[in-house]
Amino acid sequence: MARGELLKKLLGSYGRDDEFRAVAEQIIDEEEKKNNRVLAKSLRQTLDAGPRRSSVAKALAPLIPFPEAAADFVERIEPRYNKNDIILSPTNVRLLLSLVHEFRRADDIRRHGLSVRSKLLFCGPPGCGKTLCAEIFAAEVGLPLFVVKLDRLISSYLGETATNVRKIFEFARKQPCVLFFDEFDALARSRDDSGEHNELRRVVNSLLLFIDRIQPKGFLIAATNLDNSLDPAIWRRFDEVVWFEKPDRSMIKRFLSHKFKNVPTSFDPAIRVSAMEGYSYAEIDRLCTQAIRSMIIEVREQLKEHDLDRAIEDEARRRAGNARFEPTT
Ligand SMILES: Nc1ncnc2c1ncn2[C@@H]1O[C@H](COP(=O)(O)OP(=O)(O)O)[C@@H](O)[C@H]1O
Ligand SMILES: [Mg+2]
């Protein structure tokens, strides 16, 4: 985007913290792309040093009693992270912010006879922030987060499961919350299964029907590692699809400067970005944590290049090991 346009957007977002930060990140990204590293670094330091409002501190909506029978299948998660803990692409920042704003003006939108987007599908490879984002999103909109344990729900299909599914949805219809179906793939897979589990298929189909019909008071979010292979019958049930990709070089850089924010280093960790290309955030996070551990074990005040290099090597070995166990079909 042209610089003038970005500056206009930046000034226009005055007083709205989230938007201001998103536009500022965009400006920094552009400087990085133009190779103005020194300027980009100092802009980021300035941005990170600025005051921050805790987004978790918002009052949560009042809770209605949770149905006993569903307790085995649904877990309430207290928000542990806030938006400063996740690295998101500018597109996803914009998309998620627009959903937050829409939720806050839901009544006005409905008064105009329009619906509010409330069913979201998070897609992308493992370790790229789907679960983390659901948690942060719930904190941002100030709603309690309930995670549905799909694997348990599906494997316990005998007898009362259909009733339990109904109870979960009845609860979500009344309770403003984020109802999160993590590892939604389990559902897609079991729907494909052409085994004799008629009962199971019936439960899965009724779950899909409930998803179809529900107009949640908050949000229904499903996360899946599958992408195009997902059944179109599942896709069309969602108002919005959010993609979580593996980080490119500039996102890895952002992740590293966030991760090593409070760690003194004797070098710029960004020089190792290319060695981490193709890794997920979770993998990069793990190797960075390992590098920090080495520094602590060796009772040093500074992280050295070889701490990171060794951790990168170990992660590469781990990946090679995993590949050996992957099915070859
Ligand atoms: N976009 C991201 N920004 C920062 N950290 C991330 C991101 N994605 C993943 N992580 C790190 O990896 C961990 C696992 O990510 P998770 O959200 O569970 O991935 P997914 O649900 O996509 O498999 C997180 O707890 C966090 O430490
Ligand atoms: Mg996950």
Description of the molecule:
This protein has three domains: 1-53, no CATH class; 68-81 and 88-243, Rossmann fold, CATH 3.40.50; 247-329, Helicase, Ruva Protein, domain 3, CATH 1.10.8.60. 28% of the residues are buried. The chain is globular, with a radius of gyration of 22 Å. It has 329 residues and is an alpha/beta fold. Helix 2 packs antiparallel against helix 3, helix 2 packs antiparallel against helix 4 (90-104) and helix 8 packs parallel to helix 10. The model is unreliable at 54-59 (pLDDT under 50). A six-stranded mixed β-sheet has the order 1-3-4-5-2-6, covered by helices on one side. The protein contains 14 helices and six strands. The structure holds adenosine-5'-diphosphate and magnesium ion (MG). Residues 86-87, 126-132, 223, 244, 281-282, 285 line the site of adenosine-5'-diphosphate. The site of magnesium ion (MG) has 4 residues, from helix 6.
Q: CATH topology of the largest domain, what is it called?
A: Rossmann fold
> Beta fraction of the residues?
5-15%
**Spatial sequence of strands, sheet with the most strands:** 1-3-4-5-2-6
Q: How many beta-strand elements?
A: 6
Main sheet overview: 6 strands, mixed
CATH architecture of the largest domain: 3-Layer(aba) Sandwich
> What is the residue-mean pLDDT, rounded to a whole number?
84
Bound small molecules, deduplicated: adenosine-5'-diphosphate, magnesium ion
Helix-strand string: HHHEHHEHEHHEHHEHEHHH
Enumerate the spans where pLDDT stays under 50 for 5 or more consecutive residues. 54-59
Q: What is the CATH first-level class name of the largest domain?
A: Alpha Beta
Shape: globular
Distance between the termini: 44 Å
By CATH, the superfamily of the largest domain comes out as P-loop containing nucleotide triphosphate hydrolases
Number of continuous helical runs: 14
Secondary structure class reads alpha/beta
Q: Which quaternary structure do these chains form?
A: single chain
